[in-house]
Each structure stands twice: as structure tokens, then as C-alpha cells.
């Protein structure tokens, strides 16, 4: 029993060393992004937005929410107490997840709105283990520090993917997202949240996006696509088949930012689709 514990500790330390090297490589890779006038980061609810930002060369750095499962209500709770309880070991626990285990917060676990089931089990460290891997804990300490340091001092574009369910309450979701923006749009900052979600259409219909700009910097996109982003096919899981839509979405955000009060009236639906199958 003691020998197995020692072996586990050695494995954990090796993982920590490997992740330290990987994190140093990422820091070097994205070193110039910190000086950008506008910072683009993921706001969850899962890992997909972070990967989309990376693929489209928009990612500035990894946020607290880049590599886990969460929802906007967990995020607001953390923002309001400055993430004070996120890494407290008494509020972290391993939970079974298929053949593996994941660490979830037992402090940030309550929500009123409806999200995908796995996003309502408590904030989840899907790809990290801050309980056993020292570098994972250090990485999240850095992410928290960065989040608090830049809040109210930098312009952000936050990318938020909502996995639609039959119980989704988009009105409540918009309220929460606007509340989050109010925490960042201070001292003259101009931050935006790009909310996007799917609407599945027939395979013989042309893919497209619909764009609705709201007040206070909330930009809403409906992605009309052929397949739900999930399953065993990795191109579908990571939404790579819809990269053309995301490129169009980012271009729309850029154009809106440059000409907002002149091109798009607030809360007006704008269809950007060309009608050409992608």
C-alpha cells in the first residue's frame, strides 16, 4: 500500500514537470498576445470556445474557464468573491467520469438556470487536477491572478458557447451575461461577449449564422448547422466542419466593433448567411 502511494506521487510529480514545460511553451507561443489592444479569451461553457479561438488565431491566453465545464452562474459566483474558494482543497473532490475521474468544485455548484447536464455538477477541472498535480494548481493560480489583474483595465472579447437543451432559458442567460459584462465594462473599458449556440437544420439546407447585437456589448449568434457538436467523430466534436461559420462570425464581430452605432441597430436580427452550402 505504501509502495503504491509512492509510485502515485512519482507519477504526479512527473505529470507536474511535463505540464510545467508545456505551460512555458504556451507562454512563449502567446507572448505577443498580451500586448494586443483587445484580448480574446474563452468564457466556457466547455473547451470548445478556447479551441475555436486557437484555430482562428484569436486566442490571447488561457482563462480560468478555457479547459473545464462550467456555466455563467458559476462564473458570476467566482467573479463576485474574486475566485477565493476555487482552489481550496476542502471544496475540491474527485468524481468518476467514465473510465477516469475529474475534479469538481463542491463550492461553486448551485445554479438556477438550465444548462447541459454535465455543466450543472459543479465547476469542473476537465483537463487538470489541482488536488494532485502541483503545476495544475499553480496554472490556475496564474489564471485567476491574470483575470483579476485585467478586470476593468483591459478590453476583452469573451467567447461563450451555450449548449442548447430543451430547457434552456436564453432570456435568463442574457441577463447573466450582461451582469458579467457590467463587472468588466468599468473605467472606460469596452468589453464584449460573443454568445453562440446551435440550431440544427436539414443536411440539404445551407449553413448560416444569424447575428443579434444587444445593448452593453452582448453579441448573439445562432449557428445553423447540420450536426450537433459532440460524439466520437473529432471533426464534429470540435466543430471543425463549421470553421467557415466561425470565420464569418469573427469577421462580423470585427465589422460591428468598427461601425456599431451606424451599421447594426441594437437588438436587430441580421442574417449573414450567403445561402451557399459550406
Task: Describe the protein.
The protein is an alpha/beta fold. It has one domain. Helix content is 37%, strand content 18%. The protein is built from 7 helices and 9 strands; from the N terminus they run αβααβββαβαβββααβ. The strands form 2 sheets. It has a 6-stranded mixed beta sheet with strand order 1-5-6-8-7-9. Strands 2-3-4 form a 3-stranded antiparallel beta sheet, with no helix packed on it. It is globular, with a radius of gyration of 19 Å.
Layout of strands and helices, then pairs:
Blueprint: H1 2-29, E1 38-42, H2 48-55, H3 72-80, E2 92-97, E3 100-105, E4 124-125, H4 134-150, E5 155-161, H5 170-184, E6 192-200, E7 208-213, E8 218-225, H6 234-237, H7 243-263, E9 270-271
Parallel strand pairs: 1-5, 5-6, 6-8
Antiparallel strand pairs: 2-3, 3-4, 7-8, 7-9
Order of helices and strands: HEHHEEEHEHEEEHHE
- The total of beta strands comes to 9
What would you call the structural class?
A: alpha/beta
As residue ranges, the low-confidence spans are 274-278
- Name the helicity range: 25-40%
Lateral strand order in the biggest sheet:
1-5-6-8-7-9
Major sheet attributes: 6 strands, mixed
Number of helices: 7
Mean pLDDT equals 88
Strand content: 15-25%
Overall shape: globular
Radius of gyration: 19 Å
Distance between the termini: 57 Å
Number of domains: 1
InterPro entries: DUF1796
Organism: Kosakonia pseudosacchari
Protein name: Papain-like cysteine peptidase
Amino acid at each position: 500500500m505504501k509502495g503504491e502511494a509512492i509510485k502515485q506521487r512519482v507519477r504526479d510529480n512527473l505529470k507536474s514537470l511535463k505540464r510545467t514545460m508545456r505551460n512555458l511553451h504556451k507562454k512563449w507561443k502567446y507572448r505577443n498576445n498580451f500586448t494586443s489592444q483587445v484580448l480574446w479569451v474563452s468564457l466556457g461553457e466547455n473547451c470548445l470556445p478556447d479551441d475555436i479561438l486557437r484555430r482562428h488565431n484569436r486566442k490571447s491566453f488561457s482563462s480560468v474557464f478555457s479547459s473545464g465545464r462550467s456555466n455563467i452562474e458559476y462564473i458570476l459566483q467566482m467573479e463576485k468573491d474574486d475566485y477565493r474558494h476555487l482552489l481550496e482543497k476542502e471544496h475540491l473532490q474527485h468524481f468518476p467520469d467514465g473510465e477516469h475521474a475529474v475534479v469538481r468544485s463542491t463550492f461553486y455548484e448551485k445554479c438556477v438556470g438550465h444548462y447541459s447536464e454535465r455543466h450543472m455538477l459543479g465547476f469542473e477541472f476537465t483537463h487538470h487536477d489541482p488536488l494532485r498535480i502541483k503545476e495544475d494548481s499553480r496554472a490556475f493560480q496564474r489564471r485567476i491572478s491574470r483575470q483579476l489583474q485585467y478586470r476593468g483595465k483591459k478590453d476583452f472579447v469573451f467567447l461563450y458557447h451555450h449548449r442548447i437543451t430543451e430547457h434552456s432559458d436564453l432570456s435568463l442567460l442574457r441577463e447573466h451575461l450582461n451582469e458579467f459584462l457590467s463587472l468588466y465594462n468599468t473605467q472606460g473599458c469596452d468589453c464584449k461577449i460573443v454568445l453562440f449556440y446551435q440550431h440544427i437544420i436539414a443536411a440539404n439546407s445551407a449553413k448560416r449564422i444569424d447575428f443579434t447585437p444587444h445593448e452593453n456589448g452582448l453579441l448573439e449568434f445562432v449557428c445553423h448547422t447540420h450536426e450537433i457538436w459532440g460524439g466520437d467523430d473529432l471533426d464534429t466534436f470540435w466543430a471543425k466542419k463549421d470553421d467557415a461559420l466561425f470565420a464569418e462570425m469573427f469577421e462580423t464581430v470585427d465589422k460591428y466593433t468598427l461601425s456599431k452605432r451606424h451599421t447594426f441597430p441594437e437588438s436587430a436580427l441580421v442574417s449573414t448567411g450567403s445561402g451557399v452550402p459550406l
